[in-house]
Specification:
single chain; 267 residues; Purple Acid Phosphatase, chain A, domain 2; six-stranded mixed sheet; 8 helices; globular
Length: 267
């Protein structure tokens, strides 16, 4: 049996509430259960949780089914990589110690088969987006993290989820804005000026696409598990985009939904 590499991102467990998050979590666990027989490596490329913060003796409540499934996968020898995203940037040592996952805090380069991969969540990469880049410096500032850790968990998590809800994407942000404007594509093209990369893998944008950068390199965005339920599979040196059991749902109820369908997939 040919072993495969899988990529997931932007699941945002916890969003928008415990009941609806649990429904998506169960779907994800079913998907992981179905792929475990042929998976060699699984990458979770950021924003797996809508918020994650580890106190020294306290970790977030919930996600039991998902975390249990990850432990099951690593116990049988499947390599599982976690990337921090802009929503779960504060991961520390809990998941590596308890679940034996490999944790990445930034960009990661590796070779799979005979292809060179560049993998990152994608937040703050590329030109522009100065507001978020400034916020990220605050979020990753150690004194600021120390101050936040002094809040009681009940208050800290309530504030975090309130902030997350106020920062939700508006509908325009779910459209593919063109290869000359998509920041992650521009970032990938800039990297190609100095590095040899075959496949770029990003999350963050929630828009599933695979775009040819030149005659050799491609750039893929995984999508999300909020509306698209998409993931990537790499097998026999081919990258394939899949939707889990046609679970995709409509985000918009007006005429923009038709344009949305046309714009999110570009080859």
């Amino acid at each position: 049996m040919t072993k495969k590499t899988y990529f997931f991102s932007d699941i945002h467990l916890g969003l928008p509430n415990a009941k609806l998050s649990l429904q998506r979590e169960k779907k994800l666990v079913r998907c992981l259960d179905e792929i475990k027989t042929d998976a060699e490596t699984i990458y979770f490329v950021g924003d797996i949780f809508d918020f994650w913060w580890e106190y020294r003796y306290v970790v977030p409540r919930g996600y039991t089914r998902f975390l249990g499934k990850i432990a099951e996968l690593t116990d049988v020898g499947i390599a599982v990589h976690f990337f921090t995203g802009n929503h779960d940037i504060w991961m520390k040592n809990y998941l590596p110690e308890e679940l034996s996952v490999i944790l990445h805090f930034g960009e990661f380069e590796t070779t799979i088969g005979n292809k060179k991969f560049f993998i990152a969540h994608g937040d703050g990469l590329g030109p522009g987006d100065k507001t978020y880049k400034f916020l990220k410096k605050i979020f990753t500032n150690r004194p600021m993290q120390w101050l936040f850790s002094k809040l009681h968990p009940n208050l800290a998590f309530r504030l975090a989820y309130f902030w997350s809800q106020t920062r939700r994407k508006n509908e325009k942000e779910y459209f593919f804005v063109g290869r000359d404007k998509e920041l992650l594509l521009l970032h990938a093209e800039e990297i190609l000026l100095t590095k040899n990369v075959d496949i770029f893998i990003f999350g963050h944008r929630h828009i599933p696409y695979i775009v040819d950068l030149n005659e050799k390199a491609i750039c893929a965005n995984i999508g999300d598990w909020i509306i698209n339920f998409t993931f990537l599979v790499f097998e026999q040196n081919q990258l394939i985009q899949k939707t889990y059991k046609n679970e995709r749902i409509e985000l918009f109820t007006n005429d923009l939904s038709k344009k949305f369908k046309l714009n999110v997939f570009e080859k």
